[in-house]
Amino acid sequence: ISLENDMRRALERDEFVLHFQPQVDLATGQLRGAEALVRWRHPERGLVSPMHFIPVAEESGLIVQIGECVLRKALAQVREWHDQGLPLFRVSVNISALQFRQANFARFIETLLAEHGVSGEFLELELTESILMRDVEDVLDTLNAIKSLGVRLAIDDFGTGFSCLSYLRRFPIDCLKIDQSFVRNIERTPINQSIAQAIVALGESLALGVIAEGVETLSEAAVLKGMRCSQAQGYLYSTPLEPRSFARWLANRN
Ligand code: G
Ligand code: G
Ligand code: MN
Ligand code: NA
After folding, report:
1. Where would I find the EAL domain in this sequence (predicted)?
2. Segments forming the whole domain that contains residue 159
3. For residue 36, what is the domain's CATH number?
4. Pocket of ligand 1 (CB under 6 A)
5. Is 240 in the pocket of ligand 2 (CB under 6 A)?
6. pTM, two decimal places
7. How many angstroms separate the CA atoms of 200 and 92, rounded?
8. Counted domains in the chain
9. ipTM of the complex
10. 233 near 23, Cβ under 8 Å?
11. C-alpha 157 chain-centroid distance
């Protein structure tokens, strides 16, 4: 059985689950949001990483259905956490190019928010630079329509794509995510320090939030804090957690 057919069946059998990784304020350590990361709870192979199926899902087009399933689950989880009285925070969802380019993508987001009774301010979409670089006028329309719902827009893996920075002027972006390759060993890697510093400065001057990804050590966090990078995400704070562990993680910190 091909991986593609296996994934179709997984959608029918509801085998995709979300884990959530905390995003914290670097200065105070307070929770600021959570990134939703999909996993496949495979009946024989156990928990399968998205690295092993997202590329095939993108090639086959199945990423559209998987991405819809991820958005539904993320919003259902926000609803559930709200109902359980957890402190409110935003959930970030990774969006693939094919998914973003679906006709009426913004309308789809609007419908999902309404269905789950979740306000747009509790959702952030993580887009890659490659999504933004094609069909600029269409992209701009979609971004504006999404923004009008109150949803936040972040650029994932910032600095790794082939972008021209001028798109930051035109597109209603809220946040840059410093790719983890620039964060790794930043305390003893001058080039990474220079790049991260440049992204923080760019964020400051354009009034964008900046979050460092893949922060693993206290020394990496200290350097980023020294640069006045505002937020961080990474194993130093927590790995991605299943929802119940996430709630426990949050309870233990407050
Ligand atoms: O979660 P990590 O744990 O292994 O994720 C690996 C890769 O898969 C990352 O590049 C991440 O952005 C991507 N990824 C994780 N969840 C999703 C998702 O729901 N949709 C898309 N398109 N990519 C995802
Ligand atoms: O492409 P994107 O940035 O969405 O992917 C996030 C990926 O990074 C996921 O695979 C997630 O599990 C992983 N990740 C999150 N925090 C860390 C970290 O501190 N170190 C490493 N090596 N990976 C991390
Ligand atoms: Mn991401
Ligand atoms: Na990233």
Report:
1. 1-254
2. 1-253
3. 3.20.20.450
4. 37-38, 49-51, 54, 67, 70, 94, 96, 240
5. yes
6. 0.97
7. 20
8. 1
9. 0.97
10. yes
11. 10
